[in-house]
Write a structure and sequence with these properties.
The complex is a heterodimer of chains A (about 290) and B (about 270).
Chain A (H helix, E strand, L loop, with lengths): L1 H37 L8 H6 L3 E2 L7 E2 L2 H32 L2 H16 L2 H20 L6 H26 L2 H9 L4 H12 L1 H17 L2 H6 L17 H9 L4 H37 L1
Antiparallel strand pairs in A: 1-2
Helix pairs in contact in A: 1-12, 3-6, 3-9, 4-6, 5-6, 6-9, 7-8, 9-12, 11-12
Chain B lengths: L1 H20 L4 E7 L4 H14 L3 E7 L2 H10 L4 E4 L5 H5 L2 E15 L7 E2 L1 H9 L16 E5 L4 H11 L11 E3 L2 H10 L3 E6 L3 H6 L3 E2 L1 E2 L6 H5 L6 E9 L7 H10 L1 H9 L3 E2 L2
Parallel strand pairs in B: 1-2, 1-3, 5-10, 6-7, 6-8
Antiparallel strand pairs in B: 3-11, 4-8, 4-9, 4-11, 4-12
Helix pairs in contact in B: 10-11
The chains are: A mainly alpha (about 290), B alpha/beta (about 270).
């Protein structure tokens, strides 16, 4: 019986080890694959032209051009504008849930926010076409397919992450800090702004950066509302194509250098996401340090 | 009992003969026009199912490259979405029309304009005409819906509309990934204009939009077939020398022109020949 237990124990250990290896291997393989398919582009197109030319015309027979600057700018524009909408709303909601909401309202609001994160992105896109795009069209004239439409949809999509992270980190702030603040005669508002938010800042920043990653990587929803014109966005009402949109738009029939350029676009996206993740790791370490101090 | 045995023997023999009926074998490489590719791919799939010993691939090389490789003998059958040049005919290539490709220009229901000339259409898509009042409509900016650069429809529109006028596409246009998406965006956006394969006009009209007549001719199967509709063209497959009876190429062309081939053509969004 004891032998069997030991056998089960070591067997399970191995199963877990293999599972861990599978997930690591898939990351490594994916990275290798993208780089192997994407890097050969630089034999034909210079790195500088690829990154800093706004001219994307791969099917121009005489002078094909593979510049993705407008997509990088577009992706960043959409991402930061969506955060500008989502961060104030998200953090406020988080504060409300952690500090003010009663039990029933809190539970209701929390499940509503969780529901948001479970909605498939294509539904967000259709919602955007049906409601957000006509609204922007009404405000700005033009077609309504724009940076702002995409940002509004992305803001709604990133809300759950920001709300959850804010609430969780506020709840993790030690009670003596809160009570200390009250004991000093601070109002609720002063406590939240002066004590709780600073104490919870690394967790909140992590939430924001996670939301940023989601916004940067989102494809389907922005594809449906962004307009997808391969131009440099000139303002919030201009049409936009992001890095992910560029990959998905041309992927179906692209060939040769054009196809390679799409993989190279993926490398750039990968670099952005990797950068964000490293930032999160550092922020989280910081948070742990602060908690243990 | 005897009858049952007889029937089952007949069935077994029958299925053996059915397999034997796939009399073609070997490996073949076809290629050429990416517009023809969706037709060719489905047709090849069906053809290979009936002839399991045959392996055929179709490479989307583009019409020009495909015909060149056909002349050189690299491939044995080429799809082409344009008429063959005299030089290509002189080098012994024989084209067979397999379908008509027609593009319909569709607009949102708020556009009172009913007709555009080819020049006007080219101007709209090149960005030199930006307001509907310039082509006889009301004062309303034109929202142009284009297709992704790699689609055959994009290539066909460029060839039929912009190339003759020596213009190129404007960049500030909504880019849709599929005919259906063009239809949806045109139908839902005031001032929008887009182009779709003839088979998708219904999707736009169902949503309240309409197809424009071009140079006075409305897009329809009839006008596409008799060549009066300007935005239509032949789709060909070509062989080097007329395809010989009994060859896989001949059998494949016959299959494309058969009733089942016509269904494939129609499903791919093109107009089958009468």
């Amino acid at each position: 019986m004891k032998g069997f237990k030991r056998f089960l124990e070591s067997g399970l250990e191995r199963v877990f080890l293999v599972s861990a290896l599978i997930s690591i291997a898939s990351v490594v393989l994916m990275t290798l694959f993208i780089f192997q398919r994407g890097l050969p582009l630089f034999r034909e197109v210079s790195v500088l032209h690829f990154l800093f030319s706004p001219d994307w015309s791969p099917s121009n027979p005489a002078h094909p051009s593979y510049g993705i600057l407008s997509f990088i700018v577009g992706a960043l524009f959409v991402t930061f504008l969506s955060l500008a909408i989502a961060v104030p709303v998200g953090i406020s909601t988080g504060i409300f849930l952690a500090e003010m909401a009663g039990h029933r309202i809190g539970a209701f609001l929390r499940s509503a926010v969780e529901l948001l994160s479970g909605i498939p992105s294509v539904i967000y896109g259709l919602f955007g076409i049906a409601f957000v795009v006509p609204l922007i069209r009404l405000i700005s004239g033009g077609s309504g397919y724009s940076v702002l439409s995409a940002s509004i949809i992305l803001a709604i999509m990133t809300l759950p992450t920001i709300v959850n992270m804010t609430e969780v980190s506020l709840r993790a702030v030690p009670g003596d800090l809160r009570e200390g603040s009250w004991a000093l005669g601070a109002t609720k508002w002063q406590t939240v702004v002066g004590v709780l938010l600073p104490a919870a800042r690394s967790g909140i920043i992590t939430g924001v950066v996670l939301g940023m990653g989601r916004a940067l990587g989102e494809t389907m929803a922005v594809l449906l509302v962004g307009g997808n014109a391969p131009i440099m966005p000139t303002g919030p009402f201009s049409m936009v194509r992001t890095l992910t949109m560029n990959i998905i738009t041309d992927m179906s029939y692209a060939e040769g250098t054009h196809l390679t350029a799409l993989f190279t676009t993926a490398i750039v996206l990968f670099a952005f996401i990797l950068g964000l993740n490293i930032f999160i790791q550092i922020a989280l370490k910081q948070a742990v340090k602060e908690q243990t101090r | 009992m005897k009858r049952i045995i007889a029937v089952s023997v007949a069935l077994v023999l029958g299925s053996v003969f059915a397999f034997a009926a796939g009399k073609y074998s070997g490996k073949y490489t076809f290629g050429g026009s990416t517009t023809v590719q969706p037709i060719a791919n489905v047709a090849i799939e069906q053809f290979v199912k009936a002839n399991p010993d045959v392996k055929i691939s179709y490479e989307g090389l583009g019409s020009g490259t495909g015909l060149k490789q056909l002349a050189e003998g690299t491939i044995s059958l080429a799809g082409s979405s344009r008429d063959l040049k005299q030089s290509e005919l002189d080098s012994g290539l024989v084209p067979v029309v397999i379908a008509r490709d027609a593009l319909a220009v569709v607009v949102n229901k708020d556009i009172p304009v009913a007709n555009l000339s080819r020049e006007q259409l080219a101007g709209v898509y090149a960005g030199t005409i930006v307001n509907w009042k310039e082509v006889g409509g009301k004062d309303e900016p034109i929202v142009v819906v284009n297709r992704d650069e790699t689609s055959g429809t994009y290539g066909a529109f460029k060839e039929l509309v912009l190339d003759p006028a020596k213009l190129s596409f404007l960049k500030n246009a909504i880019v849709a990934k599929e005919n259906g998406e063009v239809a949806a965006k045109v139908a839902s956006t005031p001032g929008a204009v887009g182009y779709v394969g003839l088979g998708f006009v219904e999707e736009v009209t169902k949503a309240g939009g309409k197809a424009l007549s071009i140079a006075g001719v409305l897009p329809a199967v009839k006008t596409a077939l008799d060549n009066t509709y300007p935005l239509s063209r032949n789709l060909y497959v070509a062989t080097k020398g007329a395809a010989k009876a009994g060859s896989v190429e001949k059998a494949f062309i016959d299959y494309l022109l058969s009733p089942r081939g016509k269904v494939i053509v129609k499903e791919a969004g093109f107009v089958p020949l009468k």
